[in-house]
Specification:
Blueprint (H helix, E strand, L loop, with lengths): L11 H15 L6 E5 L13 E7 L2 H5 L2 H6 L3 E3 L7 E7 L2 E10 H4 L3 H11 L1 H16 L4 H22 L11
Helix pairs in contact: 5-7, 6-7
Length: 176
């Protein structure tokens, strides 16, 4: 199955806010904060219709103990191989609807995903270029890995610019 890229849906921020409320109400005190990121968080940007959330926590191990409570909300754990991060996904009706990335709170503000979001929110021209790239790759019938890999050069350029603006060291957008 190919990649679906949808026109920007103005309901996406509200869906993210509902999900954030659901998580914070069901797991009070588990997260220091939760951010909506990814293409669905950038007004006007075409995106895979999946709400990406990044939650900051004081202790990753404490969240591992909440896996059953997250599963009750439909968030299932997946090992992505990325260190210093827990990843959960939620499907509804056989469709992926949410990704939840859980990271140490003191790293959240400098995560590449957050920096990319903030940069694209400010740069409508780069957001438009990114949307066009995603549509082109989806039209080619790229699978998930090929799609992600083909976006890397563009994303790396934007993240490098964002990190430079903030005086942060440059790092690869591919986490290990």
């Amino acid at each position: 199955m190919g990649i679906e890229i949808a026109d920007y849906d103005p309901r996406w921020p509200a869906l993210a806010a509902e999900s954030i409320s659901e998580l914070t109400e069901a797991l009070p005190g588990a997260f220091t904060r939760i951010e909506h990121f990814g293409s669905t968080s950038v007004p006007g940007l075409a995106a895979k219709p999946v709400i990406d959330l990044m939650a900051g926590v004081e202790d990753l191990a404490a969240v591992e103990a909440l896996t059953d409570k997250l599963a009750a909300l439909g968030y299932l754990a997946m090992d992505t191989g990325m260190s210093g991060r827990l990843f959960f996904y939620r499907d509804r009706g056989g469709q992926r609807t949410h990704h939840l990335h859980v990271v140490p709170d003191d790293t959240l503000d400098t995560r590449n995903e957050i920096l990319l979001r903030d940069y694209l929110r400010r740069s409508h021209a780069d957001a438009a270029r990114y949307g066009a790239l995603k549509r082109d790759l989806a039209a080619r019938g790229s699978d998930g890995l090929a799609y992600t890999t083909a976006k890397t050069e563009f994303i790396q350029r934007i993240v490098d610019a964002a990190r430079t603006e903030r005086g942060l060291p440059l790092v690869s957008v591919w986490e290990r």
